[in-house]
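B., you asked whether I could sanity-check this one before it goes into the benchmark set. Here's the sequence:
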Amino acid sequence: QDSSRVVSVSSDDTMAVWDASTGALCWRTKLQEPQTVSLHAKTINVQLRLIAGLVSGLMPDVYLGLLCVSYSPCGGCIAVGAYDGTVRVHNAATGEQQHRLLGDHEGGITAVQFVQNCSTALVSVGADGRVVLWSLPPAVDVDADSSTAVVTIQSAVVRHHSQCVLTCLATFCEGAKIVYGDGRRTLRVVDIQSQKDLFHLN
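And here's what the prediction gave me:
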């Protein structure tokens, strides 16, 4: 990964990239207009509703925006997970959106990582308890012109843990394996190619 850049996302749908050595802003973009946030209840009730909304993927009057972000290993792409259950892939140099992935998550995306030591595959976990593996076309590369391309995004639900909020995700062995928390105090290690459980840590 390119350690000279720092990327962040926020609940107002803003994504920004800074130069890590100087602190200078490279670029900032607003991905979409956030929905109106209704906070008329007491603080504790609002917190409970936010948690319930993450789990169910519902709650139309409360919107949490962008929840997670990850650089591709080559540093050319950025993957962003959102509260609306979508994953978006952006050009890291310009911020231009290249792909919008949806359909396999029914709740907010809580973590996203590129895998296979490349920029053409990524995995996401969500508040719906699902682990989804996405296979992206070569057009996701930073030098490719994907603005007019019509591509098919292949995806597979690798795991589905009902009534669990998956909140952490990491890759290792050059992206060949993933580890994630299943919401039951257990870390699960999965081989990407075979999609088989290797072992559990608890």
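One thing to flag: The mean pLDDT is 76. Otherwise nothing jumped out at me.
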